Structure formats: structure tokens, C-alpha cells
Amino acid sequence: EKYILHDCDTGADDAIAVMMLLSHSHRVKAVALTCVGGNTKLNDVVMNNLRLLKLYNMLDKVPVYKGCGGPILPVIPVAQVCHIHGSDGMGDVPSMEPAASDDLLQNLQEEHAVNAIIRISKEYNGKLSIIATGPLTNLAMAVRLDPELPSRLKEIFIMGGTRLGKGNTTPAAEFNFHFDPEGAHMTLSSYAKKCAVHLIDYEVTLDYAVSWPWFHHWLSDNKNKKTKFAKAILETLRAYCEVKETKEWERGMSLCDAYAMAILLNSAVGLEPKQLGVAVELSGFFSRGSLVVDHFNRKNNFSPVTFYEGIDLDLYKKLLIDTFL
Ligand code: BDR
Ligand code: CA
Fold first, then answer.
1. From 113's CA, which of 59, 130, 146, 193 has a CA 20 to 30 Å away?
2. How far is the CA of 280 from the centre of ligand 1 (A)?
3. Whose CA is nearest to atom 10 of ligand 1?
């Protein structure tokens, strides 16, 4: 059995990753959702995870922890969050559980997410998989507090960075790494030498986007599912589509975070794993937050991570379909 802690900034594509995880609860154990600011403000991230768990009837099964609300070095004002997920992070759709709900908040754990990550890593010593689909602030703070943490983990899956420098937030940088470059740097440099780190970069998700016709067909196929849950999440996805489709480089629907979860749940989804050294650019004027990849293996002191050359789209689509069954 896998034991999975999901650190996320939910977020439409984070939400699909969370749902994939929850829909596998017969096979893997979701030990916690830890929240980090990114796509939207931290309190909204917390609410979105609670809203999802409520829709799934799993509020009592998966604890939610609130973590860091902004980057380690707040150069970007925290309020300047990602606009593609709507103001609440879930596309502001009417069918979602109301966001301002004290009842829901009663399910939030008191412990800080960073402390929870450290504690849980001790409880599942050697067996815990962490997946991070938001800025890496919580993971960086956790290793700063407890340098032994990485050696207690089984593996980490991270969605973030670029392999070839095609940024989605600046010309050089991807959103999660750009939001907290120091967090990304601290995480990669301190975990990668002590446990297996898998990096699902922005370009691989872009190259293996699901074609718009397939995605729209899938959305309308699911329209008939009348559960409150399906209705709400499909509306969120439709809102997300509308924004993504305006970006001409997005050739289809790439639910970035869902690819990372899919590979964690079924390693066959990730094709041609390849280990390369990486470092995060912290000081560049145009390139701050970008990922520098040692493609020719110069054997410098970069951090070794596993990239994937491709995605098995049939397996990935099956996981997406199964999530909604
Ligand atoms: C990443 O940025 C966020 O907008 C998405 O949720 C994903 O984690 C892609 O660059
Ligand atoms: Ca995310």
C-alpha cells in the first residue's frame, strides 16, 4: 500500500489531482492534505480542499492542515495570485459548496502543515510518498526545521519547473517555481540527494495535453452525472477550459497537477524516466525562478531528479475517466 501526503494550492488542476487520489482510496491511503498559498490565497486553498472532501463524503477520513500562505522571500505580493483559477481558486462556480462555511472549517486541523509533514514522516518512516502540486514553501520550511526529514521519505513527486525554459508565468519560469524560487531551491537541493525526487515539468504536460475535442467530449459525457459532486467539479473545469483556451500555446487541456498524481498512482503513466541534475535560478533579472537543467550531465553539484520524456496518454485518460465513475 502507498501512503500519500498531498501538498497543494487547490486550484482547478490540483482539485483533479486530489480527486484522483481520493478515488483510489481502496488502494492507497491519503494521509493528509497540506495547504500552501499559490493559485489562490491560503484560506481559499483550505476551503477548497474541505469543499472537495465534503463533496466526496470524506471529511472525516483525510485531515487537512493549513501551511504557509506566501513565499519564503515575498518579492511577489501575496495578493498577486494566479488568475486562471478564478478568485476562489475553483472558477467561482455556483454548484460548488459555499466557500464561507464555518461548519466546514471545523474540520481543519489545528496543527500547522509544516509540523504535520514532519510528524507524519516519522509515523510512516520510510514509507511516505509526498506529492507537491503547488509552490514548495511548506516542504522547504519542513526541511529547514528538520534536516533529517528527506531521509525518512520514500519519494517525492513535484509538479513544477521547466525542462527547456518555456515558462508559463514569465518567459523563463513556471508558476510554482516562480512563486517561491527560494522554496523550490531549498526543496530540490535538500531532498534530492536523500530521497527519490520525480519532477513533472511544465513542458511534458504541455506536450502531452489532451486534445480539446477529446476533453470537451469527456466533459459533455460526464454532464449526465447528476451528483452534486460531478456537477460542481465539471463546472470548475469548464471555467478553467475557457481561460486555458485563450492561451495559444496550450494546444489542448493539460491539467498539470493531475499528470503528477497519475504517475505517482501508476508509474506506467510516466514514460522514459531520465535522471538529470537541476538547480533553481534565484538571482536572474529575467530568469528568477527558472529551472536550470544539466542536460549533458556535467557532473557538477546539481540536484539529481527524475524527469519523464513522455506520458502514456491512454493510461492517463483512463485514470481521468475512472476518477469520475
Ligand atoms: C502549476 O501552476 C498552477 O497554476 C497549477 O495548479 C500547477 O500546479 C502549473 O504551472
Ligand atoms: Ca497547483
1. 193
2. 17
3. 175
Instruction: Give the span between the Cα atoms of 74 and 221, in whole angstroms.
Output: 43
Which residue CA neighbors atom 4 of ligand 1 most closely?
39
Say if CB 45 and CB 35 are below 8 A apart: yes
3-state secondary structure of 56: coil
pLDDT along the chain (325 residues), means of 10: 96 92 92 96 94 89 97 69 72 69 89 98 98 98 98 98 94 96 98 96 96 86 64 80 79 93 98 97 94 91 96 95 81
The pLDDT value recorded for residue 195 is 96
Q: Is the CB of 180 under 6 A from ligand 1?
A: no
Quote the pLDDT of residue 237. Answer: 82
Query: What pLDDT was estimated at residue 150?
Result: 98
Taking the C-alpha atoms of residue 179 and residue 168, their distance in angstroms, rounded to an integer, is: 12
pLDDT at 99: 64
Q: Is the CB of 203 under 6 A from ligand 1?
A: no
Query: How far is the C-alpha of 129 from the C-alpha of 157, rounded, in Å?
Result: 8
Tell me the ipTM for this assembly: 0.99
Question: Does any ligand 1 atom lie closer than 6 A to the CB of residue 11?
Answer: yes
Half-sphere exposure for 91 (CA within 13 Å, toward CB): 22
| Amino acid identity at 247 | K
Which residues are identified as catalytic?
9
Question: Per DSSP, what are the bridge partners of residue 274?
Answer: 307
Q: Which residue in 78, 9, 75 sits closest to 44, CA to CA?
A: 9
